[in-house]
Amino acid sequence: MPGKPGRVVVTGGAGFIGSHVADAFLADGATVLVIDDLSTGLEANVPAAAELQRVDIVDARQLREALDGFNPDVVCHLAAQASVTVSVERPEHDLEVNVRGTLIVCEAARAAGAPVVFASTGGAIYGNDAPLPTPESFPPAPLAPYGASKLAGEAYVATWGRLHGLPNVVLRLGNVYGPRQQPHGEAGVVAIFSNRLARGEQLVVYGFGEPTRDYVHVSDVARAFATAASAGRSGTFNVGTARETSVLELLEILQREAGTGVQPELMPLRPGELERSALDPSATERELGWRAEIAVEQGLPETFREFVPSA
Ligand SMILES: NC(=O)c1ccc[n+]([C@@H]2O[C@H](COP(=O)([O-])OP(=O)(O)OC[C@H]3O[C@@H](n4cnc5c(N)ncnc54)[C@H](O)[C@@H]3O)[C@@H](O)[C@H]2O)c1
Known about the structure:
alpha/beta, Rossmann fold, globular
């Protein structure tokens, strides 16, 4: 690189964020290959202009063949076991996909001569003692296997960059929300709440509604991948807004849009869940020229209307 990549692999491109990343590169004129095993992703999410190969990233031979045949300029790696709760229940599965799978992606990308842009997490990596908003320099202290596996994945991505002279990039994403989100992920709360409000159903709010997250719109996140892939430089960057929004504040914005006044059931935090989170994106702006453009006041009502077109 640097410069806009013409041929882009998106692992996890049938998922929520990956499908928007594929859209962003296609809009820039790139040719896109999606690698996905459709374990949580949907074929319908894959943009029509992209090719889909149904491959499990843990299958090193198949992945290598897919990448060699495509000859990518960059590999955006988003395929993952993306649920904190599942990682607590099935830590070995989480490790297999998120650590071993990431190593296999790094090695296949290296063999194809392509750098990796990796979807890590800011929300699940810094822990409860971090200053807010948290800079990338704060030492990670994950609270759940998911954060540990993402941190290990980061280490392989950065090490492969140094070892093989590739401008590999780690993006630590905040809680991503927007169209096509499924209700099982880290920030599935927006999808869950929107669907329940539309049906007038009861809502459960964990942590008594007080935990905060840095909600970042998926189109801003997709642009961060496109920006990082063209930068030709390595590094670890937060992709967030620096702003905390509590679950109750989020629910209030959605209820205003839905025209509802549902009283949520308040429950304690689940194991491995963080109390507060906001990411400091100033290095990302300074070094990559990226900043979030969509505030929650705009993005949440828009997302609600996407989920509930008749509302
Ligand atoms: N959603 C968030 O708020 C958030 C926050 C931080 C980081 N991330 C990361 O961003 C990425 C995308 O998350 P998402 O929310 O879009 O989740 P998602 O579950 O919608 O997408 C993950 C995709 O990976 C695919 N996949 C899973 N295991 C695979 C395997 N072994 N081989 C091939 N494909 C496989 C799934 O089928 C799915 O399409 C993940 O790496 C996740 O950890 C997400």
